[in-house]
Amino acid sequence: MSYDVTQFRGLIKRTLTAFDPAMATPVAVNLLLGTAAQESAFGRYLQQVHGPAVGAFQMEPATFEWLREKYDAKYPELIHRQADEMEWDLRLAIIMARLRYRAIPLALPEGDVVALAAYWKRHYNTPLGAGTPEEYIANYQRFGLG
Asked: Is the sign of the CA dihedral 100, 102, 39, 25 positive or negative?
């Protein structure tokens, strides 16, 4: 089972627009869609099979804590939130995944899925992560995101 693409795209747009309109760009929405496709098979896995990551974007608790502390002054509504809530709170998971990309001091990638995949690999999965840009591209296409 996975999310309906149209509904999930709309949820990401609405969530980001309500939280911080500057973060609700079309590139950001596409990057988050691809991230969910790669990280959780577009919502199939809400808990990492052999690890601590949770939610549609498979964020680890340590990353969640780092982001919460980094952005608590700007977004005080995050102060009392917990990483495990991302498993059932899609709004929180979307916000935290977007903040993960916002923490990068580089512009989001303009271009096609290849650019999104490279950006995801470098900044979300990291060079040490098991995922590959090729997997990201395959999952992006598999779930009809492009």
From this structure: positive
Q: What is the DSSP string of 52-87?
A: S-BTTTTB-HHHHHHHHHHHTTT-GGGTT--GGGGG
- Quote the tokens at residue 92: 């929180």
Q: Tell me, what's the pLDDT at 146? A: 77
**Rounded to whole angstroms, how far apart are CA atoms 40 and 42?**
5
Q: Structure pTM?
A: 0.96
Report d(CA 124, CA 131) in Å as an integer: 10
Side-chain-side CA neighbours of residue 18 (13 Å):
11
What are the phi and psi torsion angles at 20 (to 5°)? -160, 100
Q: Please enumerate in sequence order all residues whose Cβ is within 8 A of that of 140, keeping only pairs 6 or more positions apart, or say none.
A: 33, 34, 37, 38, 113, 116, 117, 146
Residues 58/64, Cβ–Cβ less than 8 Å: no
Task: Determine the Cα–Cα distance for residues 34 and 41; give it in Å rounded to an integer.
Answer: 10
| Side chain identity at residue 79, one-letter code | I
Domain ranges of the chain: 5-130+137-142
**Residue 50 has which token pair?**
């052999």
What tens digit of pLDDT does each residue of 1-28 get?
Answer: 689 999 999 999 999 999 999 999 999 9
